[in-house]
Amino acid sequence: MQFESVIRGRRSIRAYEADEVPEELIREILGEARWAPSWRNTQAWNVWVLRGAALQNYKDEFRAAVERDDPAALDLPATAEWPQACSARTAALMKSRSATLAAAGEPTDPAAALARMADLFGAPCLLVFGFDDCLAEAYAGFDCGAFVQSVCLAAYDRGLGTCIVATVIRYPDILRRLLPGADGMRFVVSVTLGRPVADSPANTFERSRADLDELVTWVS
Asked: What is the pTM for the complete model shown?
């Protein structure tokens, strides 16, 4: 693909085919993405690839925690309040998504949204990203974000879909218990991976980006 089409074409996918993603293809994606930049080339990111029985086990434990109404305890705290311009963009996205889902007869309430998330939107693979707890979260989180974006672009270039999700790692102690080598790690975000359901309303609603002049200050 042309670079511009990859940048513009990538979107968050929330409905996947059940087909497994071959390990070799996942290795290709991660192998390409590892060339993302990092501070002083530290490459201080880690990724766990969950598939098959391991993925189902995590989904079962996640659902159980949701049903118990366990409090969320993200390793990296979420922002409580956003500037008005940011909140307005979120509201516009939610309105577009809800309208498209409702028109297709799909539920749009928060419980239904969380249930879809707990099922990882049907994705056959989940990537979990983290870094060593000894690192400053600002630098390590920034570098990990560059890696995550590179993964998503490399996946799209190969015809796969992704969705960057924090809610799915809202119970990090479950992850630390289930994932090898996860002791002493802080989890940043997760990414669902698989082949998109092409005509799903969850994958086709309109989304937008802010005008460039809202984001850029020219100084000369």
From this structure: 0.96
